[in-house]
Amino acid sequence: MLARMLLEDLSWPEVRRLKPAGKVVLLPLGSFEQHGPHLPLTTDTDIVTAVARGVERKRVKKILCLPTLWPGHSPHHLFFPGTLSVSQMPYIQLVIELCRSMVSMGARKIFLLNGHGGNDVPLRATVRELKTEFPRVRVVVASYWTLANQGIRHACEVETSLMLHLHPGRVKMRLAKRDGPAPTARAQSVYWVNEFHEISKSGTVGDPTGATAQKGKRLLEKIIGDVTTFVDEFVKW
Q1: What are φ and ψ of residue 189, in 5° steps?
Q2: pLDDT digit string, tens, across residues 148-205
Q3: N or C: which end of the chain has fewer CB within 10 A?
Q4: Do the beta carbons of residue 116 and residue 30 sit within 8 Å?
């Protein structure tokens, strides 16, 4: 049975021997931000870490999994105490520097697995810069919910169910309540910027009250399966 391919568990000679050029180097990207009154500040980081580790377990021969980068780009949540955010340009530069380190150790395929919506715009810019600097290295970014074709809002039923499965003792369901605007087709066709407190008093968008640990278990299995399917495709690129 192969050992787990978690970078934090390896020594440098072990990294050299496993030849990162032949693996997908996976960097999960989270955030540290408010998730309503019922979920912990590490929700995005906890979920994307579980997805990444699940994919690594399924494809231990193909994956080298890095520790999750917990700081994210979350200025829209700063109204709510506890949120820690990195501004857009430093965030882009931070991810670029980490990718440079991956390339230095031999990586030729890098998968940035995103777990926070606010990271999306800076990560797209990051991939553009990395393509210019490393034209022969394939760097991709995707959010886990996109690969799983899973609609997700914020501190909603999906995230709450996942956290009830992963960390039930850290979820305060008695405080969960519906909040925020309902999505509309027209709103989804345009782009603008809101601070989060402008659309939700509680910090929640969606209805978490129907969340269960059983739903979370099924959701996590599906998400891991769909992300793993993408990894199987990516190794052939």
Answers
A1: -100, 0
A2: 998 899 999 999 999 999 999 999 999 999 998 876 655 566 777 889 998 899 999 9
A3: N
A4: yes
Per-residue pLDDT tens digits for 93-143: 999 999 999 999 999 999 999 999 999 999 999 999 999 999 999 999 999
- pTM value is 0.94
Which domains are seen in the chain, by residue range? 7-150+220-234 (3.40.50.10310)
Nearest to 60 by CA among 16, 1, 114, 106: 1
Q: Is 210 left (phi over 0), alpha (psi -120 to 50) or beta?
A: alpha
* Nearest partner of 54 among 120, 6, 108, 9, judged by Cα: 6
Token reading at 128: 């553009």
- Residue 196, SS3 per DSSP: helix
For the beta sheet containing 24-29, the strands, ordered from the edge strand earlier in sequence to the opposite edge, are 63-65, 24-29, 109-114, 138-143
Q: Is the distance from CB of 160 to CB of 214 less than 8 angstroms?
A: no
- Strands (DSSP E) contained in 38-167 are 63-65, 109-114, 138-143
Q: Residue 88: exposed, middle, or buried by beta-carbon count in 10 A (0-12, 13-18, 19+)?
A: middle
Q: Of 184, 157, 182, give the one whose Cα is nearest residue 171.
A: 157
Cα–Cα nearest to 116, from 176, 161, 51, 171: 51
